[in-house]
Amino acid sequence: MKAVVLKDWGSPENLAIEEVDQPTIRPDEVLIKTKAFGINPADYKTRTGTTPYAKNYKSPIILGWDVAGEVVETGSEVTRFKKGDAVYGMVNFPEPGNAYAEYVASPAAHLALKPVNLPFEQAAGAPLAILTAYQGLLEHGQLKKGQSVLIQAASGGVGHLAVQIAKAYGAYVIGTASGKNREFVQSLGVDEFIDYQQTPVDEAVRDVDLVFDTAGADTIFTSAKVLKPQGRLISIAYGDMAKVLETRPDIHAERILVHTSGSDLETISGLITDGKLIVTVQEVLPADRIAEAHKRLESRRTTGKIVLTF
Ligand SMILES: NC(=O)c1ccc[n+]([C@@H]2O[C@H](COP(=O)([O-])OP(=O)(O)OC[C@H]3O[C@@H](n4cnc5c(N)ncnc54)[C@H](OP(=O)(O)O)[C@@H]3O)[C@@H](O)[C@H]2O)c1
After folding, report:
1. Are 262 and 108 in contact (CB under 8 A)?
2. Is 127 in the pocket of ligand 1 (CB under 6 A)?
3. Contact 68, 114 (CB under 8 A)
4. Atom of ligand 1 at shortest range from CA of 136
5. Three-class DSSP category at 37
6. Is the CB of 303 under 6 A from ligand 1?
């Protein structure tokens, strides 16, 4: 089969399509014929070889966690899926998912049936970002109907889904992005939009119940400032949370890591089926343009998701 192989840790140019062996499946796994695969910032961070995840890879190194495709084989213990099912999921995160490939072996527990109204390209862009948004807002953020939530980087892969999930759960939603993304973020249903390049966020927002910070670095200090006492700051990007808590000891501040869950994905699939959650794919590229896709995502200026196909 064809796969995008990382020849050596480092630059995007080290990614190239090669012929490799098709994976075999364990009894609890299914084999997916890939229709599309998604990319995430975790991919380019792993590509450099500097993340803790990098040490778990064996040769040939195949990156990627997000996949959508058709089940072509099921392990003897698998009861949830059958041959021919259209599925999507975040495979094995943060262990190697090997999703940049024509065939992907995945534990059945990491997958959900793809909603019929979700094209494969959109499905491939969804799992890691959607699970992060869902777990960040509901599980860690404990978001409740009627609460106010600030979503930092509301135009990004995670942020644009977080806006819609928060709205679907009945929150008052404020989103930040630069002015070029104003219309896009407003189209997602935010109650307020803040162009962070024009208006200091901590001047425009005050006393929110929850901040979901997908921007990271210095934004977490601004995020902490705008919370009401006992409010919750959930960050998914890098940043010094201990320092944040020194400035706001009266809030709950936490940096989270998404976890694989086919059942969470199934719950969110309901929102997609009901038309309450739309996955925006900025671009679908052929797999041989993977280096370009990584560079574009690494610019931190993309809107929604980038997806690739073989
Ligand atoms: N911990 C976890 O489990 C987890 C899971 C998923 C992702 N992450 C991390 O979370 C971060 C976001 O992921 P992603 O996939 O959403 O990234 P992404 O799609 O690359 O985010 C790009 C978006 O960020 C916006 N942005 C950049 N700086 C901003 C700022 N200061 N304020 C507001 N918006 C800003 C950009 O909007 P403009 O162009 O308009 O500025 C752009 O639309 C990454 O660092 C990723 O590694 C962590």
Report:
1. yes
2. no
3. yes
4. 3
5. strand
6. yes
pLDDT in tens, the chain (310 residues): 999 999 999 999 999 999 999 999 999 999 999 999 999 999 999 999 998 889 899 999 999 999 999 999 999 999 999 999 999 999 999 999 999 999 999 999 999 999 999 999 999 999 999 999 999 999 999 999 999 999 999 999 999 999 999 999 999 999 999 999 999 999 999 999 999 999 999 999 999 999 999 998 889 999 999 999 999 999 999 899 999 999 999 999 999 999 999 999 999 999 999 999 999 999 999 999 999 999 999 999 999 999 999 9
- Report how far residue 179's alpha carbon sits from residue 185's, in angstroms, rounded to the nearest whole number: 10
SS3 241: helix
207 vs 195: CA distance, rounded Å: 19
Q: Is 235 in the pocket of ligand 1 (CB under 6 A)?
A: no
Q: Which atom of ligand 1 is nearest to the CA of 178?
A: 40
Atom 9 in ligand 1: residue holding the nearest Cα: 237
CA distance 236 to 255: 6
